[in-house]
Amino acid sequence: MSIVVMKFGGTSVADAEKIRAAALRAIRRQKAGHQVAMVVSAMGKTTDALEALAAQITDTPPKREMDQLMATGEQVTISLMAMAMESLGASAISFTAGQIGIITDDAHTKAKIKSIDVRRIREQLDAGRIVIIAGFQGVTEDGHVTTLGRGGSNVTLVAVAAALGAEVCENYTDVDGIFTADPRIVPNARKIDRITYDEMLELASLGAGVLHNRAVEFAKKHDVPIHVRSSLHNRKGTMIVADTESMERIVVSGAALKDKLARVSLAKVPDRPGVAATIFHTIAASGIVVDDIIQTKAEDGTAFVSFTLELAELSEAKKVIEKLCRRLDCHATFEDHLAKVSVVGMGMRVHTGVAERMFAALAKAGINIENITTSEIKISCLINRDEGKRALRLVHDAFELGARPGAKKRARKAKKKKPRRKSGKACLLYTSPSPRDLSTSRMPSSA
Ligand code: ASP
Ligand code: MG
Questions:
Q1: Residue 311 DSSP one-character state
Q2: Which of 19, 31, 144, 280 places its Cα 20 to 30 Å from the Cα of 377?
Q3: Cα–Cα distance, 441 to 127 (Å, whole number)
Q4: Is 336 helix (H, G, I), strand (E, B) or coil?
Q5: Which residue's alpha carbon is at the smallest distance from atom 8 of ligand 1?
Q6: Residue 206 confidence (pLDDT) above 90
Q7: 66 C-alpha vs ligand 1 centroid, how far in Å?
Q8: Run of H or E residues at 260
């Protein structure tokens, strides 16, 4: 019997009515002849509320205790979901990560899944139960509760789907799919039908917030196609799939904005082997995640090193870097006013003129580019944060991401119709047709 793994995000289980609706969806799936496992997030903004609660107690909560606290959100949902299913006449059982052996490393608040022991899940599925699993959490080999980082239920979903060799993996949330840009900023953003894992990974790390990039990485490694779709209706969302040649026809698939960035610049850095290693070893050791790194040679024979990072990490970085500068005798400056606008597309590998088009769009609007970074499938420009949203709209228009043949006509038609209820976001994950048995296998360390 084929296995379906469904995941419901916080907004899709925000209250009793929504929990019941999610339960019904799962029951329907089971009645259609599937074995059904469900991963759930904490209800609504519960995780934020828990974080805020900790902040009322202390500015520096021990990370282990933070995990202990944050993991409670999902435990509430799993039990309520199981109750909802039982009350609707289905047979269901809920599990925390510890109860089903979702083993992680001990990097509290951003742990990585090492293995999943799916025996218990399978037993319950075989007994005809719907199995409800707490997303976002894990447990170390020593039994400490961990969490996988904000939005981590998606990681749980993909990991469980891969480990079970599920046929279909669905992630229901409050948007219709992946958009060409954040529709809250870009009103004419369009839902994407198909996007590759790599594009999605780039978009996620560049600020598109729909899916956790570790979830996508996991999906890519295990070839678990992802269908992002809404929990409010049955229309198709966005399929996240392996790349094929035909996907290269689209030059740019999406644009993204990361708008809380800071930059650290180091001048007069001694130019000798090992210095860059020392700098970034020190930074990594303090748990700071660095974004783009640039090193150039200055005329006086020293090196100039700069890197961007999340604004929230700047104060920690300042401490570390100032100490380091005293040791290396270099000079540091810190900027906190930056944003990064990016475009992503597989087609960049084969089409030319993409960078020029992006730079021209920003230039025409008088937006200064402070930094440019590229990869095979993305171009990013660092700009002033105040210009961020406008830049995103400009770039989105420059690549005509909102427009599609006949779109204007359809829009006119739609205007005449009664306005539809605005729908939410959701994500479906389909596994490969010949799932490998990953039960109790080690998960790739990068995922
Ligand atoms: N509840 C966690 C969060 O809000 C995990 C998740 O929703 O995926 O980040
Ligand atoms: Mg959440």
A1: G
A2: 280
A3: 23
A4: strand
A5: 151
A6: no
A7: 14
A8: strand 254-269
Lining ligand 1 with CB less than 6 A are 9-10, 41-42, 47, 73, 135-136, 150-154
Instruction: Tell whether the torsion through CA atoms of 409, 414, 416 and 417 is positive or negative.
Output: positive
Collapse the DSSP code of 68 into the 3-class scheme (helix H, G, I; strand E, B; otherwise coil) and give the result: helix
Q: Given CA atoms 260, 54, 40, 144 in this order, what sign does their dihedral have?
A: positive
Q: What is the pLDDT of residues 378-388, one digit of tens each?
A: 999 999 999 99
Q: How many CB atoms lie within 10 A of CB 170?
A: 29
The atom number, within ligand 1, closest to the CA of 212 reads: 8
Amino acid at 201: L
- Kindly give, in sequence order, each residue whose CB lies less than 8 Å from that of residue 365, ignoring residues fewer than 6 positions away: 390, 391, 394
Question: Residue 235 is encoded by which pair of tokens?
Answer: 């229309």
- Cβ atoms of 134 and 78 within 8 Å: the answer is yes
* pLDDT tens by residue, 138-161: 999 999 999 999 999 999 999 999
Ligand 1 geometric centre to CA of 149 (Å): 8
Ligand 1 closest atom vs CA 9: 7
